[in-house]
Amino acid sequence: MAFHFRRLCCFQALFVVVLHLLYRVSGQLVVVEEPSLAPPPPLVDLDGGDSIVPALFVFGDSLIDNGNNNNIPSFAKANYFPYGIDFNGGPTGRFCNGLTMVDGIAQLLGMPLIPAYSEAAGDQVLRGVNYASAAAGILPDTGGNFVGRIPFDEQIHNFETTLDQVSSKSGGAVAIADSVARSLYFIGMGSNDYLNNYLMPNFPTRNQYNSQQFGDLLVQHYTNQLTRLYNLGGRKFVVAGLGRMGCIPSILAQGNDGKCSEEVNQLVLPFNTNVKTMISNLNQNLPDAKFIYLDIAHMYEDIIANPAYGFTTMDKGCCGIGKNRGQITCLPFETPCPNRDQYLFWDAFHPTEKVNLIMAKKAFAGDRTVAFPINIQQLASLN
């Protein structure tokens, strides 16, 4: 399938213009007041209660963002209906009809849903914080077309702020060091460095780097960022690879044959290969650290190959406009498909809740084909 890079820019730019016009007509269409949700039970210590780990800290992009972009000037928002149509409480900022993959992982760990950094307060932060931000990337310039977003470097800075807050209430950094080390760190970055950087004609990176060079650049930055989290006390890391990005509705809508873009799928392969090597090196070079890799692409391939999961629509978004319902992603108050459990994709870019929860279970208890060298359950149980 021939993939035209210029088209991707046009369609996403059109989406931004549509949201801008809607916002100018009525701010309520785009920035809907979020329903008040009951906070998790207050915590009084750092032992994690009945969960396997004391806390879960999350870093990433719109695949796992749960509201951090709600109150910043950004076109990358999902705090409006029909996002959250199947979530208890309605739209929250999750780019999904319901739960995200990390929501599922938190539940499997025996934890409450992890609060967004923008909303976490008081003792809530003791069970973890989600710092993920839609449109964010490993590189600081990634996602600039959407204006506001919180890049990975800034997410790490926000984690430092959380640590300072917790340590000031708990007797200092030494007092919380053991809990910080036993906590789990989930990182899912890189998608936007391709979709909203390398593949954007208004970014220079495609002219500066070939696919291998760009993969090398990303993982060089990624290594430094993960080492920074290690130096802040983290020891148990879950790093998600990139999925089959050439098969998302937004990319499918650019072609004429209905097939995945192998050009895009091949483009991201150096990144995944480099991340696996990076994880091996970090495990060898950082004392007491344990990094694991989640093979999201393999999970995706297993899901589409297995009819027992019950998916019947794998090439269209449940909510969206145009070809493959992927040319313009889910707009405010658009009517989504009624049979969401049969759809692989919720919108032009993101999976449905059903896919997210399947992937969470695979990541938590799967074999070495999806979680390497061990799975999340085994990682969490390590002393």
UniProtKB/TrEMBL annotation:
Domain of life of the native organism? Eukaryota
One GO cellular component term of this record is: extracellular region
Compartments in which it is found: Secreted
Q: Does the keyword Secreted apply?
A: yes
UniProt-recorded Gene Ontology molecular function terms:
hydrolase activity
Keyword terms of this UniProt record = Hydrolase, Lipid degradation, Lipid metabolism, Secreted, Signal
**What Pfam families does this protein's entry cite?**
Lipase_GDSL
Q: Which GO terms describe its biological process?
A: lipid catabolic process
**Signal peptide (residue range):** 1-27
InterPro entries the record matches = GDSL, GDSL_esterase/lipase, SGNH_hydro_sf, SGNH_plant_lipase-like
Q: Give the record's family classification.
A: Belongs to the 'GDSL' lipolytic enzyme family.
Q: What is this protein called?
A: GDSL esterase/lipase
Q: Which organism is it from?
A: Cardamine amara subsp. amara
